[in-house]
What we know:
Number of domains: 1
Number of helices: 3
Order of helices and strands: HEEHEEEEH
CATH class: Alpha Beta
Number of strands: 6
Amino acid sequence: MKRLLLPLAFFATLLTGCLNYQLGTTLPANLRQVHVPSVANTSPEPGVDAVATSAVMREIQREGTLKLTPKHSATTQLDITIVKFALEPVHYRRHDTRTPDEYRAVVTAEVHFTEMGSDKLLYSSAIEGESVFPSGSDFVSAKQDELPKACEDLARKIVDRCISVW
């Protein structure tokens, strides 16, 4: 009997620790209808706004917590401004500290998630998306290939922060 009581007590204690755990977001249901205007771009990189807008829309649809809605029926709005696009060397060739072997494409955005009507700021921050790629002979093509990947990473981080801020 004593052998049975100790494992049962342990199991009961373990279960009580998990009672308050909630799977998914704690974002209130009344704040899940989001309007996302086109992403603004103040960086010198042309076209990054269109790529970022598509990536954010796809990520919202893929993740499923937020629902894209027109402005007139939205309860929240997600404003995003791309403020910087940079290529940073992250790895250099052995015995040559002047020639990068890998680069990191970084897209930085200012994000504001607000409640419609009251204009209450629910979340605001600068967020970075990134992608690492090897340097090659065609640097321009490599950069164009990595920009969507960095924007996809940025979109994942934006949506995750908006739904997990609670």
